[in-house]
Amino acid sequence: MSFARRIAYLKAEGAYAVLARAQALEAQGREIIHLEIGQPDFDTYPHVALAGIRAIANGRTRYNPPAGLPILRQALAEDAGQRRGVHFAPEQVVVAPGTKPLLLFPMLALLEPGDEVLYPDPGFPTYEAALHLAGAEPVSIPLLEERGFDLDLEAFDARIGPRTRMIILNSPGNPTGGVLSLRTLEHVAEAAGRYDCWILSDEIYSRLVYDDLPGGGDRAFSPSIISLPGMPERTILADGFSKTYAMTGWRLGFGVMPEPLAEKMGLLLTHSVGCTATFTQFAGLEAVLGSQDAVVAVRAEFHRRRDLMVEGLNAIPGVRCPMPRGAFYTFPNIQAFGRSAEWLADYLLEEAGVAVLPGTAFGSQGEGHLRLSYANSFENIQQALERMARALKEIS
Ligand code: PLP
To answer: How many A from CA of 245 to the centre of ligand 1?
Structure first.
């Protein structure tokens, strides 16, 4: 069968391949601890789920405007704006079935074939895939482990140029948990102004931050480039409900961008997915306007697990794990074992019954690292660490 060229670059996300192998082992009776997962292990918070159920019972099951329910766009403009200290109009907000469309559609709207786009490596695999779909030229920028997986600004300066049309940022980042420093955001903002390029800022983990970041309780938040002067005019903010509100399967995301671009997003949504499920948006409205206690409690639990995992990993000879400041991933360095990340991830699955992802599932710069998710129980993480320590001793 022959396919269009734009499809040639697409491949499955690494997490799906590892999950399939882990499930095959489970079918043989093996007990596997899943640390390859990219979603919260909590159910959607009850008041949010009930709002969705109520919406279905009340007949909120029909089409709605492509860019989202006006009442949700209004609520998101206020909430997202307040958290970032920027005024957003509801017309700048676009609601979509997940954050993923808010990555692809701005690329389709803004990029011409051959336009260069800078993106982080290691990074979320959808960036490179979506750039190929849009016909753009992906140009990777390494993240530096020694700087908490902040952007390599020397490489950034060397690779940005007149053909650069967009820069993708992701903070806190998948797969590293790194948070971009204010210095980096300012550096990137200045360069974006100089070269007149767009910023696509994926902030889906912005409320899963720990330690010394500004805010606290319900207000804890990672710094956003859109808060810097002049940046709302050239920034597309992509965010969603999947991680903050444990709503991965509901499919609900939103973007904030200049109004003319938001109008084009509405057209792209009209002619692709049509609109986002109406009852899902009512659940989202409750998530934004209702109590934030569950968000705060879940973040505290992730914090506890992060500390357990980082301490446990660093206690294993040969493993070096920097402290991630956000999201729910650790990205330990395993170079000391002298094996590829893929080999080691396979070994841990087969020998220790612990499913993890090789760093290379997120780009070539991920070599020498594994990604472990702490979206699993405290007890399971404890057990996984013991099993990993035993298995890794065998090969050190
Ligand atoms: N961006 C990043 C960095 C992610 O890790 C994910 C999901 O894993 C997404 C976007 C997509 O999220 P959604 O479920 O809202 O489409």
So the answer is: 13
| Alpha carbon distance, N-terminus to C-terminus of the chain | 46
Q: What CATH homologous superfamily does 5-43+294-393 map to?
A: Aspartate Aminotransferase, domain 1 (3.90.1150.10)
Confidence of residue 311 (pLDDT cuts 50, 70, 90): very high
Summarised one tens digit per residue, pLDDT across range 25-63 is 999 999 999 999 889 999 999 999 999 999 999 999 999
pLDDT for res 17: 87
Q: CB of 185 within 8 A of CB of 215?
A: no
Torsion region of 116: left, alpha or beta (phi above 0 gives left; psi -120 to 50 gives alpha): beta
**Neighbour tally for 315: CB within 10 Å:** 11
- The reported pTM is 0.97
Lining ligand 1 with CB less than 6 A are: 38, 98-100, 124, 170, 174, 202, 204, 240, 242, 248, 253
**Which tokens is 51 given?**
């709002």
> Three-state SS for 108?
helix
Q: Is the CB of residue 220 less than 8 Å from the CB of residue 326?
A: no
**Which of ligand 1's atoms lies nearest the C-alpha of 38?**
8
- The Cα 18–Cα 317 span in angstroms is 25
Structural domain 46-289, CATH architecture: 3-Layer(aba) Sandwich (3.40)
Give the residue extent of every domain in the chain. Answer: 5-43+294-393, 46-289
